Each structure stands twice: as C-alpha cells, then as structure tokens.
Amino acid sequence: MELALKNLSVEVDGRQLFHVENSQVSKGNKIGFVAVNGSGKTTLLKLILSSNPAIIKHASIGYLPQQTREIGASGGEKVRLTLAKVLLGDHQLLLLDEPTNFLDIAALAALETFLKDYPGTFVLVSHDQTLIARCTTQTWTIKQGLMTTKMAPSEDDLQAHLRLLEFQKDQLIQDPDADLNAIQKINQQIMALRK
C-alpha cells in the first residue's frame, strides 16, 4: 500500500480549503486527523477514497463516512454494525470519519482497543483528543490553509506532561487566589492522560 500526498490542493467548488506539500503514509501508520469543522477533512478522505493513482496505489480501502444524525434507538446499532463491517473487512487502509459519533461507552472502549492493536494503516478523523492520543502514531492538522504532520508523543513524553500538569495543579491548589476553573481544567487533562 502506498499513499502519497504531494503538492495537493484540496478544493470544494473551485475554492481551496488547504494545501498539502508532502505527506507520505507507510504501511502500519496510524494517523489522527484533527481540524475545525468545515476545514476539509472529509473532502480529503473522499479524495483518497477515489483511488486516484497519483495519490494511492495498491490498496483496498475501508471507509466509514461520518454519521451526522442518529435515527431512533436503532440508529446507534446501525452505526456499530457499519463500523464493525469496516473494521473487520480485508482492507489495507481504513478511513474513519468521526467513528465515535453515537457510540456508547462500551463501544468506544472496544473501538479504542481495536485501533491500538490494529496492525494495519488508518486515518482517523476525530475531535476526541484522548482517542487520538492513545491510538495514533502521527497527527495531521490543518492550520492557515496548510496541512502539517507531526509525530505523536511517546509514552515518556506523556508521563512527563502528566507530571507537569500534576505540579501545576498542586501549585494552583496552594494559591488562595487561584481560579477554580483553571484547577478543574488541569484536573480533566490529568484524568484523560491517566486513562
């Protein structure tokens, strides 16, 4: 499987959303794709899905489109069934567009476990920063019309960040003038890293 995004403009109706200078995806890469809504994440996934030979070669692609609304009580079941079909298919590349929409806690935990252990390649669009941090090896972001790639932090980096947050929390707790919202925000970050 080869996926190469080189000198690529991602456009909708002739309007450029963002530009990709050079991004290579190798077998086994686990990519989180984060950006604000409307920035072109889904558009890029659809471009990859189109199997343009200038972008992707020799790959069977499993695609989970973004679920924009849940239809009744069975809607969540339909989402889980569609997700399971994509995840368990015989694909070299998974394109997952907001797969956590409408999943309950047990299904979210199962998805996280699957993605952590998955030996293949995937691109995961999600606003769930915890899922991205736990399951991916690199992150694509879109800022100021340019897509950039950065490697995910190592376990040592995460532990160092956790220690820093705990220190900051302790300092705030000792300060009688500290803002309670700041303490709560740091505490939420600590809890997310400990999961």
Describe the protein.
The protein is an alpha/beta fold and 195 residues long. It folds into two domains: 151 residues, Rossmann fold (3-Layer(aba) Sandwich), CATH 3.40.50; 39 residues. The chain has six helices and nine strands, in the order βββαββαβαβαββαα. A nine-stranded mixed beta sheet has the order 4-1-2-9-8-3-7-6-5, with helices on both faces. Strand 5, helix 2 and strand 6 form a beta-alpha-beta unit. Helix 5 packs antiparallel against helix 6. The chain is globular. The model has no long low-confidence stretch (mean pLDDT 85).
Helix/strand structural class? alpha/beta
The percentage of residues in β strands lies in 25-35%
Task: Give the biggest sheet.
Answer: 9 strands, mixed
Q: What name is given to the CATH topology of the largest domain? A: Rossmann fold
Determine the fraction of residues in helical runs and give it as a percent range. Answer: 40-55%
Average pLDDT works out at 85
What strand line-up does the widest sheet have? 4-1-2-9-8-3-7-6-5
Terminal CA distance reads: 33 Å
| Quaternary organisation of the protein chains | single chain
Shape field: globular
CATH class of the largest domain: Alpha Beta
Helix tally equals 6
| Overall tally of domains | 2
The H-level CATH homologous superfamily of the largest domain, spelled out, is P-loop containing nucleotide triphosphate hydrolases
- Which residues form runs of ≥5 with pLDDT under 50? none
Question: How many strand segments?
Answer: 9
- Rg result: 19 Å
Q: Would you list the SSEs in sequence order as H and E?
A: EEEHEEHEHEHEEHH
- Report the CATH architecture of the largest domain: 3-Layer(aba) Sandwich
